[in-house]
Write a structure and sequence with these properties.
This protein is α+β, with helices and mostly antiparallel strands. It is 37% helix and 33% strand. The radius of gyration is 39 Å and the shape is elongated.
Length: 175
């Protein structure tokens, strides 16, 4: 058992090559041991550094090319996202204690308008009711905190009033 440990230890020493260029083991004894000279070790180190530097440069070049490709792909994606956002634009109208805010709005066809009730006064509930050309475009009753969305797909002028407080009006122009 002891002899096996010595063989393994000798093999490990050779395998590690601690400043050794060659080593021969025969039945647990190190038969040949050759040590590199300092100049040979330095030459080997310089060659390894030169190889590493070349590899690093090649890797850096390929990394820069990949980054450029990713950047151009990101720019293309952001252009597509912008076009999609225009098609799916959402605008907010608040129902306040003083009326619709804003009370006039110009939007592009295809825009979704979200009506949100933020009232806190004596008449908190409301129904958004379309009049004239917007007749039939009505929300359900909105209590404070509730929202209702409508997408304006056709161009034109659309007027809305509050069903309970009809003096509050809103005009939406869709171009």
């Amino acid at each position: 058992m002891q002899k096996n440990k010595i063989i393994i230890l000798a093999m490990l020493i050779c395998a590690l090559g601690l400043m050794l260029s060659s080593c021969t083991v025969d039945q647990g004894e190190i038969v040949e041991l050759t040590q590199e000279s300092d100049s040979e070790a330095e030459d080997t180190t310089d060659e390894q550094e030169a190889e590493t530097t070349e590899e690093d440069l090649i890797e850096e070049d390929s990394t820069e090319e990949e980054d450029e490709l990713e950047d151009s792909a990101t720019e293309d994606d952001s252009e597509e996202t912008t076009e999609e956002e225009v098609e799916e634009e959402i605008t907010l109208i608040e129902l306040t204690d003083e009326g619709f805010s804003p009370d006039e709005l110009t939007i592009a066809a295809g825009t979704t308008v979200t009506f949100t009730n933020v009232r806190e006064g004596a008449y908190p509930d409301e129904v958004v009711m379309g009049v004239r050309s917007a007749r039939g475009i009505d929300s359900e009753e909105l209590t404070p905190g509730d929202s209702w969305e409508y997408t304006f797909s056709e161009t034109g002028e659309f007027e809305f009033v509050g069903q309970y407080l009809t003096t509050y009006s809103l005009e939406i122009i869709v171009e």
